[in-house]
Specification:
alpha/beta, 14 strands
Length: 526
């Protein structure tokens, strides 16, 4: 009977024999935790450490009966209670009369749930070293027994060690005080793309329609960045090493891209060699989801040690419904994020838009709307630090880059040299597979009748003037309206007095011209 009495009551009996030296030192802790769980199942399951113990029971308990009871609480959920747990365990013939009495006598050991939560964390942390040591001991025995399978044994052992090291809800987070944050005047050692557009541990989502050339464009970025070169306004903080994991192109396709980009960029031989050694490509088309991340991606990251990890396309590796919030969040935040942070790399998934753009080609969208341009869950816009989209225009071979999130950090400017820009045009190469800046004469025009002068009026701020050159530039980049047509619409607006021209004197040259929604006042002349 003594061995089933509550610990506190048993230890208070003067005639109780001392605990055996090799008994589990956490036995009393386990009984106390189970008593707390059975007393308030709903509150216990709302605490991360207690919930984890129940979810992983019976393995998470050394006492088999405690493990069975905790597992049953997890199965029944918040509606569980001591009576239903005992009833189900008896029905399943997992406990007998002594087991029933054991559970009934635990009530006196229950702790307040908040204290039990802290004890649960201690239980996980106390057992972790022993489990790690046991895993290494088993691996050593396996290597001695079957040395020819050393690669598989090491891979499986490494995965087990990583799981054990991170199992449980983890230690309590330690918040930073504002005064302990870094000095913004100091250079960020984790900066990858200036000015902190992409840093180590962060994600840049690249989005575009099928068939535009996303693979070649992103490979060109990787090659340029490997040599420390700026590419289409993206400036690397230093030469960057890349790991490309892709599923859509065979080795000949990749070789054609490499040669086209090398020739198109007119790279000297030294830069071709440097880029060729710094950019690694792995083709994987037979694995998805958590198995892909653990067994294929993680070992490659460990071997290559890249600054940038590219995934082309994201949908090939997700392993689930891209519209399902839980699927996307688990893949990105639970499985990929720990690797991104542990390896201190930048992550660039390449993703598809859901369908061809609407008829207005995004003209009614705000800049930040393009953060949600990718197909699927909104988590695909929330998780990345930055989002860039690639879109076709009305002219074949000319495309538009849009910065949908945190774009201002890149420092792109309109033609006036002052107004932040969030779009720019790029073009297919004339020979070979590569991308280039459009020539000045490759002016974009909108479809006939697609716009009228109201399209230009929408670009004029309501509270301040905009320079005439900047307005014409915005008409081109945001509305796909060519310069000649934009000037014609502007003339109509001026004639109708819907907008007004301002002139601001400049020393030694002609006045600078602005467009505003109200007439110029005398104080506006300065």
């Amino acid at each position: 009977m003594d061995n089933i009495l509550p610990t506190r009551r048993r230890n208070a009996r003067p005639d109780t024999a001392p605990q055996a030296p090799d008994a589990d030192p956490n036995g009393a802790l386990e009984r106390s935790l189970l008593a707390s769980i059975l007393e308030s199942p709903a509150q216990a399951l709302d605490r991360p450490n207690l919930r984890w113990l129940c979810a992983n029971a019976p393995r998470s308990f050394s006492d088999p009966l405690c493990g069975l009871a905790a597992a049953e609480v997890h199965r029944q959920g918040p509606e569980a209670n001591l009576a239903t747990v005992i009833s189900e365990l008896e029905r399943a013939e997992q406990i007998d009369c002594e087991g029933r009495r054991y559970l009934l006598t635990l009530a006196a050991e229950a702790l307040p749930v908040d204290l039990a939560e802290l004890d649960a964390q201690k239980l996980v942390e106390d057992r972790r070293p022993a489990r790690l040591a046991e895993t290494l001991k088993e691996a050593s025995a396996q290597l001695e027994s079957i040395p020819t399978r050393w690669e598989q044994i090491i891979e499986a052992t490494g995965e087990t060690l990583r799981t054990l090291a991170s199992e449980g809800p983890g230690a309590l987070d330690t918040p930073l005080t504002l005064t302990s944050l870094p000095d913004t005047r100091e250079t960020d050692p984790d900066e990858l793309i200036r000015d902190r557009f992409l840093c180590r541990g962060a994600t840049l989502l690249f989005v575009g329609r099928t068939g535009l050339g996303k693979s070649s464009f992103t490979l060109q970025l990787a090659i340029a960045w490997a040599t420390g070169r700026e590419c289409f306004g993206f400036r690397p903080a230093s030469p960057l090493r890349s790991l490309f994991i892709q599923s859509e192109n065979d080795s000949r396709d990749l070789a054609e891209m490499r040669s086209g980009i090398f020739d198109g960029l007119e790279l000297p031989q030294a830069d071709r060699t440097a880029a060729g050694e710094a950019v690694h490509v792995a083709t994987i088309d037979d694995s998805t989801g958590i198995e892909f991340v653990r067994r294929r991606l993680a070992p490659l990251v460990e071997r290559v040690k890249p600054d940038l990890l590219w995934l082309d396309p994201l949908l090939a590796y997700l392993g689930g419904d891209v519209s399902d919030q839980r699927t996307v969040s688990d893949f990105l935040r639970v499985h990929l994020a720990p690797i991104i942070h542990r390896a201190r790399l930048g992550f660039i998934p390449i993703h598809h838009t859901p369908k061809a753009p609407r008829e207005d080609n995004g003209n009614s969208w705000a800049t930040t709307d393009f953060a949600y341009a990718g197909a699927g869950s909104a988590e695909l816009a929330n998780f990345p630090r930055a989002v860039v989209s690639l879109e076709p225009t009305k002219r074949t071979g000319i495309f538009k880059l849009r910065l949908g999130k945190r774009g201002r950090r890149l420092g792109w400017l309109e033609v006036d040299g002052e107004t932040p820009a969030y779009e720019r045009l790029i073009a297919h190469g004339r020979r070979g597979i590569f991308w280039r800046e459009p020539d000045p004469d490759e002016e974009l025009t909108a479809s006939t009748g697609a716009f009228n002068r109201s399209a230009i009026l929408e670009l004029v701020p309501g509270d301040r003037p905009i320079s005439k050159d900047a307005l014409i530039s915005l008409a081109k980049t945001r509305k796909d309206i060519g310069e000649k047509r934009a000037k014609g619409f502007l003339a109509e607006l001026l004639d109708a007095e819907e907008v007004f021209e301002w002139r601001v004197a400049r020393k030694g040259t002609n006045p600078k011209r602005f467009i505003a929604r109200r007439p110029q006042a005398e104080e506006d002349l300065e």
